[in-house]
Specification:
Layout: H1 2-7, E1 20-24, E2 31-34, H2 35-44, E3 48-53, E4 60-64, H3 66-83, E5 89-94, H4 100-115, E6 119-125, H5 134-147, E7 152-161, E8 164-171, H6 178-189, H7 192-203
Parallel strand pairs: 1-4, 5-6
Antiparallel strand pairs: 1-2, 3-4, 6-8, 7-8
Length: about 200
């Protein structure tokens, strides 16, 4: 069906019903020809007369193998589609006091998302008075990024947006410095007391 639609975009040979056309391309002398002459030139070369710019005055045609022309057009469309692939963002939600079992479960999912090429948007949701624990949420997200350093790099460090603290991770294609960036951020932003508690939690 798609290929048929592509065919319908172009008029060829006797379907080109105009008095004259401008010929361009290889093996022809560029210029304006009566339609009968243009068709004759194409027939002599065993090719097709394909109208490529119908709105020009006169319309522009090319003498080519029509099937080969369709193949090249279809290939170009596929290449353009591949370049415009939509980036998928997977979200992972934590509470400010997520337990280890839940944390490891979500960590496993995040690894899978990054391996398949998706970005990961992880956030800690603060409900009610839990916003008082925003520093713990930051520690959690930085630990999360550190545990994923072999799979993704930090695109955005933890930032508080309303009731959510968000960190963005993008798939890691080549070697990077996500680990050092994460550790530097942890040293710079996490209070010593909370940092020490987190280090103890990780080593237990």
């Amino acid at each position: 069906m798609k290929n048929d639609n592509l065919k319908d975009q172009y008029r060829i040979n006797e379907r080109i019903r105009v008095r004259e056309v401008r010929l361009v391309g290889d093996n022809v002398e560029t210029g304006v020809y009566p339609i009968a002459k243009a068709l004759s030139i194409a027939e002599e070369q065993g090719m097709d007369l394909v109208e490529i710019s119908p709105n020009a005055a006169p319309p522009v045609c090319r003498v080519i193998d029509y099937q080969k022309f369709l193949y090249q057009q279809k290939k170009r469309q596929k290449e353009q589609k591949a370049k415009s692939v939509k980036v998928v963002v997977k979200e992972i939600r934590f509470g400010p006091q997520t337990d280890d079992h839940d944390y490891n479960f979500k960590l496993k999912h995040a690894k899978g998302f990054l391996e398949e090429g998706s970005k990961v948007k992880a956030y800690v949701f603060f409900k009610g008075r839990s916003i008082l624990f925003k520093e713990q949420g930051e520690v959690l997200l930085l630990r999360f990024a550190n545990d994923l350093e072999d799979y993704g790099r930090v695109e955005q460090l933890p930032v508080l947006e309303g009731k959510r603290m968000i960190i963005m991770l993008t798939p890691k294609k080549t070697g990077g410095n996500a680990s050092s960036a994460t550790k530097d951020a942890k040293k710079a932003t996490v209070p010593p007391k909370l940092k020490k508690e987190e280090e103890n939690k990780v080593t237990e």
